[in-house]
Amino acid sequence: MATSAELDAAAEALRGRTLAVLTGAGMSTDSGIPDYRGDGAPVRNPMTFQQFMKDAEYRKRYWAGSHLGWKRFDGASPNDGHRTLAELETGGIVNGIITQNVDGLHLRAGSQRVVDLHGTMDRVRCLTCGQTFSRSDVAKRITSANEWLDQPDSGELGPDGDVEFNQIADFVTPECTVCGGILKPDIVFFGEFIPTEKFSEASALMQSAEALLIAGSSLVVNSGIRLLDQASKRRLPVVIVNRGVTKGDPRATVKIDAGISETLAELAIRLTN
Asked: Tell me, what CATH number does 155's domain have?
């Protein structure tokens, strides 16, 4: 738990300012979605974009595991931390959310301006013709073609909604119904670049903010560090709430090592009273 002194210091740094908020995987652990790097998180080796593109067997393994985890991932609900940020946006304190998560929980919690830096799992895109599809529709096609695989409660769920699964010999990979091209969830894989327009949206939020609140990100991914750089160059107050060390700790005005949901709730009370 955060101490009263830590919360007071964070509130003092942020009070009276418009906040941009950057969130990472730690934001969604209270919703049952695991973290990549948090305390106790198992070592994970997510598939890279290069692997996905070069080999149909990799795509089989990815789509099989992703399908198995999709129902539980899609069924996750926003937690108190998501709802707190949505309320702060409604109150005019937060100008928007920049998230590294792909779970869509900020929008479902009521946040209006959300920049999903790494995309969202509920959309699927054809890498050949650019056609987009609803993930739920693609899931129905996978189930129809692979009835033996429809075991959505098996395996340990990963941060991006997939599970480890290697029994892929008979798996039928979904293809684009428009051109027959390669389908990929509309998310940024490891080794893939964030779309320029997405980072421009995030930078626009940063430019209109007077402080930066980082919640649940270890800042290992370059996109987070680049946004922290923007805040540092403008000498904006930076408050980091995260369990464990982050790469931004030396530059934080205040760092709170505590749970995200309860800390944001207590911080919101201090900012709105």
From this structure: 3.40.50.1220
